[in-house]
Amino acid sequence: MTASPSIHCRDLTLSYRRHPAVHHLTGTFAPGSFTAIVGPNGAGKSTLLKGIVGLVRPDGGTIEVTGARRSDIAYLPQQAALDRGFPMRVLDLAAMGLWRRTGPFRRIGAALLGEVEAALDAVGLSGFEDRMVGSLSGGQFQRALFARLLLQDARLILLDEPFAAIDARTADALLGLVGRWHGEGRTIIAVLHDFHAVRQHIPETLLIARDPIAWGPTSEVMTEANIARSRGLDEAFDTDAELCERPAA
Ligand SMILES: Nc1ncnc2c1ncn2[C@@H]1O[C@H](COP(=O)(O)OP(=O)(O)OP(=O)(O)O)[C@@H](O)[C@H]1O
């Protein structure tokens, strides 16, 4: 396996129409680290992931991804951002994860088909291959997306609320899968709202409320004092707020 990717943020500000959603963030997602991004609604968590994949450009500071090309990042957006109406079988959705290896519009042979079936089996979706994605429940759809991630075999994986609106058993199964990816040396970042799961399973945490509150080992970051501070900055994004005039460090 190649070296694990890392991400360096230096005085990073990400904004919408110059109103900052992520404000002066400095720190590193280390190679092979597994980090939760936690914070109140509107704290800039999704925006930070979008910044890492290049969907939102910094208007202050920098983000540097080392050890992976942006096109090689596996990024799972929030479910709400995904269109499930597209007529596609579960098998085809999962097989999209092979895109880097097969290129677009190539038929997949028996060996790769076996890999797709194995990935669906790993997420508990054996027997669902020919179902249309629109007919799946929310949790089954999430499992299918994880099968696609498995096949993508990326070294850098970004997950935006991957366990929202799914039952505890499915969340546990998928969290176990993510834990295995971490064990394989992949670098993983997950936006999560379940503090209990974060404390139990995720070694590193970035707590953010537009401005960074704390970043480091989860037990040091997820203190009552830090969480209270983040709540104090709740809904920090305000379209009437002053534009960010603080010069980059
Ligand atoms: N496309 C956009 N245009 C304008 N403002 C946006 C856009 N996307 C997000 N914002 C604003 O930026 C701020 C940060 O949003 P973001 O989605 O990053 O928050 P979040 O921490 O992921 O929140 P949640 O927990 O509610 O998903 C919010 O106040 C949001 O309203």
What's the number of helices? 9
- Encode the helix/strand succession as letters: EEEHEEHHHHEHEHEEHH
Helix content: 25-40%
Task: Report the CATH C-level class of the largest domain.
Answer: Alpha Beta
Structural category is alpha/beta
Count of the domains: 2
How would you sum up the major sheet? 6 strands, mixed
Q: Quick one: CATH superfamily of the largest domain? A: P-loop containing nucleotide triphosphate hydrolases
CATH topology of the largest domain: Rossmann fold
**How large is the share of residues in beta strands?**
15-25%
Distance between the termini: 36 Å
Gross morphology is globular
Question: What gyration radius follows from the Cα positions, in whole Å?
Answer: 19 Å
Any guess at the CATH architecture of the largest domain?
3-Layer(aba) Sandwich
Overall pLDDT confidence: 88
Q: What order do the strands of the largest sheet run in, or round the barrel if closed?
A: 5-6-7-3-8-9
- Which regions contain 5 or more consecutive residues with pLDDT less than 50? none
- Bound compounds: adenosine-5'-triphosphate
What this model shows, in words?
The protein is an alpha/beta fold and 249 residues long. The chain has two domains: 1-73 and 154-249, 3-Layer(aba) Sandwich (Rossmann fold), CATH 3.40.50; 85-153, no CATH class. The chain is 33% helix and 24% strand. The chain contains nine helices and nine strands. The strands form two sheets. Strands 5-6-7-3-8-9 form a six-stranded mixed sheet, sandwiched between helices. Helix 6 links the parallel strand 6 (156-160) and strand 7. The mean pLDDT is 88. Adenosine-5'-triphosphate (ATP) binds next to helix 1. Residues 7-235 form the ABC transporter domain.
